[in-house]
Amino acid sequence: MKNRTVLRYSLSFRRQVVSDLEEGRFSSIQAAGEHYGIGGSDTIQKWLRRYGKNHLIPKVVIVQKPNEKDQIRQLKQQVAELQRALGKTQAHSILNEEFRFIRHLQLGQDIDSFKKKVDTTRSTQPTSDLP
Q1: What pTM did the predictor assign?
Q2: Are residues 73 and 105 in the same domain?
Q3: Shortest CA distance to 52 belongs to which of 81, 73, 26, 22?
């Protein structure tokens, strides 16, 4: 088992790092960590939350109306349903292509010539069904 060194910082040291950050001595939390030799990435952020004024920790604030949260949830559900439907459609398309390929092999037909025949008959047939 590997020996691990656990560093404990005194309360006065923690407050000193936080006050230096709040006074603007360092440009970022990472710069303060490098200066003082603090290895943990979240250590100084925890100290800022505990001892600081919390204005240096980046925050994300989302302002929503009550019905917007429900709309977002519904839209996410719709996206998930559409993705599932698209996946099924793609799977059916792949299966149809494979079945068509197998059928042409059983009949001894060339697939490329069949595709050309089908494309020419489609384009030459009159479309009387259109309004």
Answers
A1: 0.41
A2: yes
A3: 22
